[in-house]
Design goal:
By secondary structure, this protein is an alpha+beta fold. The longest helix is centred in the last third of the chain and has 16 residues, at 133-148. The chain has a four-stranded mixed beta sheet with strand order 1-4-3-2. 32% of the residues lie in helices and 17% in strands. It has one domain (4-171): 3-Layer(aba) Sandwich (Peroxisomal Thiolase, Chain A, domain 1), CATH 3.40.47. It is built from six helices and four strands.
Length: 172
């Protein structure tokens, strides 16, 4: 098994000698697939389907590509400005976590509560299937909310180049 001592011996991934990001605190690039069905409330009613949740609000943001992992910060701020919601309104939060340090930066900038954020683990623990991560984050949040009887959740996603989206899911 992997020990803490083993983790301390891992080489930096990006900045030789002084870097802190290693294979031990980064998400793996994983294979994966996910799917979800999105439709209007009217279409769901027409088909006799009961939606799990609805998209209540969204925000978008961006930052310089050199700090792209922090891009959820402006997206969440945009979402709160558009919707009037505040962080304490959310019962669960799912934040894209490509690297542990990246998540900690977002947590610090937004003042996130670890007790309600990434409650099943983030990308470092669950994996980061590039191209599928956004859907994985939403589905993880939805089922965490369902399991815990929560009504309102926040999901964020950062992308290469510094783009980001944030969305509010409300259970139905």
């Amino acid at each position: 098994g992997l020990t803490m001592e083993d983790l301390t011996k891992l080489s930096p991934a990006f900045v030789p000698k002084t870097g802190k990001v290693t294979a031990g605190n980064s998400s793996g690039i994983n294979d994966g697939a996910s799917a979800m069905v999105l439709m209007s409330a009217e279409k769901a009613k027409e088909l006799g389907l009961k939606p799990l949740a609805r998209n209540k609000a969204f925000g978008r943001g961006g930052c310089h590509p050199s700090v792209m992992g922090l891009s959820p910060v402006p997206a969440v701020k945009d979402l709160m400005k558009r919707s009037g919601l505040k962080l304490p309104d959310f019962e669960l939060i799912e934040v894209n976590e490509a690297f542990a340090a990246q998540y900690i930066g977002v947590e610090k900038e937004l003042g996130l509560n670890r007790e309600i954020t990434n409650v099943n683990g983030g990308g470092v623990g669950l994996g980061h299937p590039v191209g599928s991560t956004g859907c994985r984050i939403l589905v993880t949040l939805l089922y965490a909310m369902k399991k815990r009887g929560k009504k309102l959740g926040l999901a964020t996603l950062c992308g290469g180049g510094g783009v980001s989206l944030a969305t509010v899911l409300e259970m139905m």
